[in-house]
TrEMBL record:
The keyword Repeat does not apply. CHCR repeats lie at residues 572-716. It comes from Clavelina lepadiformis. Keywords: Protein transport, Transport, WD repeat. Residues 20-360 form the Vps41 beta-propeller domain. This is Vps41 beta-propeller domain-containing protein. InterPro entries: Beta-prop_Vps41, Clathrin_H-chain/VPS_repeat, TPR-like_helical_dom_sf, Vps41/Vps8, WD40/YVTN_repeat-like_dom_sf, WD40_repeat_dom_sf, WD40_rpt. WD repeats lie at residues 72-113. PANTHER family: VACUOLAR PROTEIN SORTING VPS41, VACUOLAR PROTEIN SORTING-ASSOCIATED PROTEIN 41 HOMOLOG. Signal peptide: none annotated.
């Protein structure tokens, strides 16, 4: 089934996804319509009941297959209406032959036929007809009649309405019956047994209507239990049943309001709800008001299925969401009354005399199909992954392969390569096919980074094909692949021979040489790989040595390793870490002609252990002096193995004053060192610091004597030697009439420092004196406290019980020794415990046991 989709955007720049999908019913229906014509349809979730102009009624499945056991011929002429109950057990039909038939699909107990004397145009069954005892039926002729089964299976007919023309449409939902006659639509409440509303055809007087109802019949559809949709001509209305409270039991408790009412630019051939939207079958005609029964000369346009929604801001207008032109067989010869529309949930059937089209809400599969049709493959692939198992027609692999093919055809090879891993997964055959396809278009470099390298791998030929392509066109890319790919992905010998063949033409190509070294490494030929890396000065040499323990090869490659520029420190560390393989003497001998390399090696050796290579410290002095003077003085201070005389000669040759001063001071020739300082330095602070370090009063005298002819030196000395030398000595030696800039300030500073020092001394003395007095008083208070003596305590002098009639008890305040008073005169015994002046605390007992205390200081 094909359809043409259009939207409000007539320019076509923006593609909008269709809302519905279409399928023409086929199978047995095609055979039926070859000899007959469809007149009406009723839908159930399990089957479709089709009425024809020959009075036949066919029960079909939703694909159009005839259910052979459910075929009926209840009428002799056109079936005008078919109705089903909720369970699908009963089918009611009516015809222009005046018969109303109710047929049970599963038994014949409740089947019945009502014979009328006029054509029946519409019929409806009570929704719960199968379970109801009353078995209510409503049918319409020129009046609306309800037929109810009474006692003894008799049927009673009641006229609900008449006098307003033919009742062409009836729709029964729950307790409400809606029907349309020539004047309008009415709603009847079966519970209250009264009509609750009348909705006119148009806003003009009903007797002045010019649109003929037989050519443009009304179409009714319940949206829910209380909302009804009405399409009549180009008028569309949305009405709702409301409740109202009243104390008068005779007045109806329900009423109907029109929610929306708008004019359409088409004649409505059928109407149905679609969620909050409305589906209308549109018949296009320029002037409905002037239509006559004989005006059938011009061919009709294709009918359209439109989805519209009311405008919430304007109740008299609507918004068109989409429109689809339907390819109905023979549409050129059909008028508005030849079409009808029925719906059941998500299925919508468009009925014409020779064709039945099924429209459905598009599902996830349909959306994927539409995206593929408009070449939105990436979005389709993402939605397939999102929908997952909800899809029935499409799989991730199928959509992905379609996307891949589309990208390859468009020449977007980078995007195609990017989606290969997620689309192809672990399918080896598909991977091989895509690799060969990339090879055919010369784009293997695009897919090379994305080829599988883990547990799942392709045949070696695929990887070798990619490497060969890079070797021809991109040597850097070839080398990069060798770094990234495991060597198990390709034949090492084959690729080595291919690289050697290219090196025959370009023997000094550094990229190919590095690639060859990687291949040698993968083939465990480490000696050849190391030789190439050293030749190229490639840092990979260090990793190769450490990773494969090639330390024995260091002896033969000391100089090549030290010739690395940026990685020279790493080379030095490697040699020092493996001194058991490359002794220091061997390295020094190899680097004897390369003084700069030797200096860096010996410097690193000294930093690691100052005692290693001590025999080369004299050589290092010369190397530091030549290549790195800034580190010479720290080296002289740190090393204990330097020949001082030789080092001093080297420094004198190069006139390195600081180093000479240090060496002279270390050799004990401080006077000469001081003379160098005063000779070359204009600032006395350096000489002062040197004298402070030497801490020699004679050196201070020499500094003072050497400074007497230098006013700046004298001022500097006055400002700096106050804590080491008495300034009076310097002041007395200053020659008379010598002009010394800043002398007054220097003297003022000396006096201020002396005054501050004196004040600080007196304050400290005062604080200490007050602290001594306070602590003495505290100690005296502690000494005056009585103490408890245990009865079992013995005298510390004679060993007799301390508490006896022998006499008073003495106690040393400092060491807590207790003894009888008689022993206090024995100074020799006491001095065995103290070598300083003691104070004693005496506790005496009288014969009556009274305690007496006295304190004395012998």
């Amino acid at each position: 089934m094909s359809s043409t989709t259009s939207s409000d955007d007539e320019s076509g720049d923006v593609l909008e996804e269709p809302q519905l999908k279409y399928e023409r019913m086929g199978s047995d229906l095609l055979e039926i319509l070859k000899t007959d014509a469809a007149s009406c349809v009723a839908l159930h979730c399990k089957f479709v009941a089709l009425g024809t102009h020959w009075g036949k009624m066919h029960i079909l499945d939703h694909q159009g297959n005839n259910i052979t056991s459910k075929r009926f011929s209840p009428h002799t002429t056109t079936v005008t209406s078919i109705a089903l109950d909720d369970t699908g057990e009963y089918v009611a039909s009516c015809s222009d032959d005046g018969l109303v038939s109710v047929i049970s699909l599963y038994n014949d107990d409740y089947s019945q036929v009502i014979t009328l004397d006029k054509p029946a145009k519409s019929v409806a069954l009570e929704p719960g007809y199968a379970q109801s005892s009353s078995k209510q039926i409503v049918f319409g002729t020129d009046k609306l009649v309800m037929c109810v089964r009474t006692w003894l299976r008799r049927h009673q007919q009641t006229v609900l309405h008449q006098g307003e023309g033919l009742v062409r449409t009836i729709k029964w939902r729950k307790q409400f019956i809606a029907w349309a006659n020539d004047w309008g639509v009415k709603i009847y409440d079966t519970k209250q047994e009264r009509r609750i509303t009348h909705i006119s055809r148009t806003s003009t007087n009903k007797r002045n209507n010019t649109v003929r109802p037989e050519l443009y019949p009304a179409h009714i559809s319940w949206k829910d239990d209380k909302t009804i949709l009405i399409g009549w001509g180009n008028d569309i209305k949305v009405c709702a049943v409301r409740e109202k409270t009243t104390q008068n039991l005779r007045e109806p408790t329900k009423y109907c309001v029109i929610l929306y009412q708008f004019k359409a630019d088409f004649a409505c051939c059928g109407i149905a709800p679609l969620g909050d939207q409305i589906i209308a079958l549109a018949f296009l005609e320029e002037d409905l008001q002037n239509e006559t029964a004989d005006d059938h000369n011009e061919p009709s346009q294709r009918p359209q299925l439109r989805i519209i929604e009311p405008d919430l801001n304007n109740k008299e207008s609507y918004i068109e969401v989409s429109r689809d032109a339907l390819s109905i067989r023979g549409y050129q010869n059909y008028r508005c009354s030849d079409y009808s529309l029925e719906y059941n949930g998500s299925e919508i059937f468009v009925v014409s005399p020779k064709d039945v089209v099924l429209a459905q809400k598009r599902d996830e599969d349909d959306r994927i199909t539409w995206l593929l049709q408009i070449n939105q493959h990436r979005e389709a692939l993402e939605l397939v992954q999102q929908y997952g198992k909800r899809l029935k027609k499409h799989t991730y692999l199928d959509v992905g392969l379609t996307y891949l093919s589309h990208l390859m055809d468009d020449g977007d090879f980078a995007e195609a390569a990017e989606i290969c891993p997620q689309v192809l997964g672990n399918n080896m055959n598909l991977w091989e096919q895509i690799v060969y396809r990339f090879s055919e278009v010369g784009q293997l470099r695009e897919i090379s980074p994305l080829l599988p390298r883990g547990d799942f791998r392709l045949p070696l030929s695929c990887y070798e094909m990619v490497l060969e392509d890079f070797l021809k066109q991109d040597h850097k890319g070839f080398s990069k692949l060798l770094n990234e790919w495991p060597s198990e992905l390709y034949n090492i010998t084959t690729m080595t021979n291919r690289v050697l063949s290219y090196l025959d033409r370009d023997a000094h190509n550094p990229i190919l040489l590095a690639a060859l070294a990687k291949l040698y490494t993968a083939d465990n030929r480490f000696d050849r790989a190391l030789s190439i890396y050293l030749r190229l000065q490639d840092p990979e040499a260090f990793q190769l040595i450490r990773k494969h323990n090639l330390y024995k090869a260091l002896q033969e490659n000391i100089l090549p390793l030290m010739q690395f520029r940026e990685q020279q420190q790493e080379a030095v560390d490697l040699l020092l870490d493996n001194m058991e393989y490359v002794p220091v003497d061997r390295v020094v001998a190899e680097l004897e002609e390369k003084k700069n390399h030797l200096h860096k090696y010996l410097h690193a050796l000294f930093l690691r252990d100052p005692h290693l290579g001590s025999e080369y410290h004299a050589l290092q002095v010369r190397l530091y002096a030549e290549f790195d003077r800034s580190r010479l003085l720290p080296f002289l201070r740190s090393s204990n193995y330097i020949p001082l005389e030789e080092a001093l000669c080297i420094c004198e040759e190069r006139e390195y004053v600081d180093e000479q001063v240090f060496l002279l001071g270390r050799m004990g020739n401080a006077s000469r060192a001081l003379a160098l300082i005063t000779e070359h330095e204009t600032d006395v602070s350096r000489a002062v610091e040197f004298c402070k370090d030497q801490d020699d009063s004679q050196l201070w005298d020499e500094l003072i004597n050497n400074s007497l002819d230098k006013p700046d030196y004298i001022r500097g000395l006055l400002e700096n030697i106050g804590t080491h030398v008495d300034p009076i000595i310097l002041i007395k030696k200053i020659p008379n009439n010598m002009k010394i800039p800043g002398l007054r300030d220097a003297l003022v500073k000396i006096l201020q420092d002396y005054s501050m020092q004196t004040a600080l001394w007196w304050e400290c003395k005062r604080i200490l004196s007050s602290d001594v007095v306070a602590l003495m008083r505290k100690q005296m208070n502690v000494n005056m406290r009585p103490q408890r003596i245990d009865e079992s305590r013995d005298c510390d002098a004679c060993g007799q019980p301390l508490l006896c009639k022998r006499g008073k008890i003495n106690q040393s305040i400092r060491c807590k020794i207790k003894y009888h008073c008689g022993f206090s005169r024995d100074r020799r015994y006491v001095m065995r415990y103290f070598n300083f002046k003691l104070s004693w605390y005496e506790i005496g007992f009288s014969c009556g046991g009274q305690l007496s205390m006295s304190t004395f200081f012998p």
